[in-house]
Amino acid sequence: SQTIHQWPATLVQPVGSPLSLECTVEGTSNPNLYWYRQAAGRGLQLLFYSVGIGQISSEVPQNLSASRPQDRQFILSSKKLLLSDSGFYLCAWSKYRGYEQYFGPGTRLTVT
Amino acid sequence: RKEVEQDPGPFNVPEGATVAFNCTYSNSASQSFFWYRQDCRKEPKLLMSVYSSGNEDGRFTAQLNRASQYISLLIRDSKLSDSATYLCVVLANSGYALNFGKGTSLLVTP
To answer: Of A4, A99, B59, B110, whose CB neighbour count within 10 A is largest?
Structure first.
């Protein structure tokens, strides 16, 4: 069966500091990978998705970037965090375009 | 108009009750629909996909009305463990982004 891991689970970072969140998927090959953010009191919003190694599509212009260095690894980064980057970051995978997406346990980020 | 709209609730129901959630979506070209469940401070978990003909999974029944752009979820014989936020989700035209409603909160009481 497939599992998806994210770390860290929680993170408190000062404004202006860098960020690196990691997501890995096990039990499947060539998945579509996604980064979502859930800000307080708001719905989930897709930030990035990837259909393969090195292929990144951005849905929303922002202070963040994503990379996919390996088939089952997806990384979310920032060079300088803003207060507005606080939120619950969720990685997800799907086998094919348009199919169900399955979420990892998430990283709760607080920027102070 | 928001992509996906849900009544935020909360819905407070006793154990054993039947409860229904509704959702409307704005994009008439949408092709795929889902219900997810999210417990407090946890990730969303897929509850069920919603098919044009309607579908049932145990105590849960989902219906889709394309003409009215309306999706519903019916929960029969509510359990305490059903307490959660239920998210109505519509796949964007790109086929990649999921558009989430803000969720409907359900509390099942003894």
So the answer is: A4
A37 in Cβ contact with A49 (< 8 Å): no
Cβ atoms of B71 and B20 within 8 Å: the answer is no
Q: Do A98 and B31 touch (CB under 8 A)?
A: yes
- In 3D space, the residue among A69, A99, A64 whose CA is nearest the CA of residue A82 turns out to be A64
HSE-up (13 A, CA, CB side) for residue B33: 30
Write the pLDDT tens digit of every residue in B59-109: 999 999 999 999 999 999 999 999 999 999 999 988 899 999 999 999 999
Contacts of B18 (CB under 8 A, 6+ apart): B74, B75, B76, B77, B78
Exposed, middle or buried by CB within 10 Å (0-12, 13-18, 19+), for A61?
A: exposed
The CB density around residue B73, as the number of other CB atoms within 10 Å, is 23
Q: Please tell me whether residue A85 adopts helix, strand or coil conformation.
A: helix
| A23 exposure class (CB count in 10 Å sphere: 0-12, 13-18, 19+) | buried
